[in-house]
Amino acid sequence: MTRVVMMTGAALAGCVALGVALPLAASSPYPTAGQGDWIIQATLAQPTAAPEQPATAQVAQAPAETSVDKIVIPTRSLVVVTPPRPSPVKTRASREEFAARWKATGIPASDQAADAQPTGTVRFALASESTAIVEPSQSRTPQVDVPAEAARVKPQERKVEAPPPKPKPPVDPMAAVDDYLWQVYMRTPVKKDSSGDFTWKDPAAAKRIHMSLKDYVIRGMDADFREQLYAAGHAMDAAGLRWSMLSAFRDDYRQALAAGFKARPGNSQHGGSRAVGGYGYGRAIDINNVEGDDEQVWHWLDAHGAKYGLRRPMPGYDPAHIQAGGEYHRVAASLREGRTHMAAAVPVSHKPEKQAAVRSRRPRTAM
Asked: What is the pTM of this model?
């Protein structure tokens, strides 16, 4: 059934197309050659003039009607119509014409009189205008009569004082001592003893308090103790002994890392907080011989250490341990005076009386 309806609709659509669309497509709104050789032109009829009427009587006029006239023009006769020429376009004046019409004039006299100083203003005017050109004067500075005596007087020369020299930074009297002891410390880059290799311990302790290794192990010791080591060290160098330090300053943290026979953290002479006061007050080191025979260095200290205020308190338990002994502050002051001749300018780190009192109250412990 559906197929029949679709076929019927298609047939009707075809009939409509043949009956309506085809004739419309074949037709044309323009005349063909068989219908006549003419075209239609539309012209507007001129309106006729209406007679004059009184103003009181207003009569509506009929609008102009448009009439269409048929004019037959043969198609084969062609008339050439020349198009009208366009009027010339006005263009901008050239640069030469503009310069001819205008001229640069100076400042008018009326305007110039009102100005206090020449302004250099340029005024443009037409050539037909007559404006006087006024040249500005070269200088308006009033002349002042200077007496001849004043001209001969020379101004007083101003002396420019040189800035005072910058003061030189004070020289650290312990710089040479610290450099020497640091060099001695680095003579043995690998630190080890019977307990094993402990090279990492000093750098770890210095890093913990954000300090360089030199400042930690060298400047952590007492200044007077460093003076003693400086003098005794040079004497050992002169004797042909290449001595070095296995351990120098040790705070409580570094003391806890030590192995073997040792004092408790806080009680070490290397820099314990309770024993000596911590950083800057260490007065003990562990000494060795770079060439291997440590006993040569130890025996030299036993024979000559008292001259420099140094001693080995425990040669049996801890033979490498040496520390300051006796009135070492007075010994250090004497050694410093002989080295720098400036004993009065260098402050003493500790008073001997106070150190003697501390030693008398402190129990004897392992170092």
From this structure: 0.51
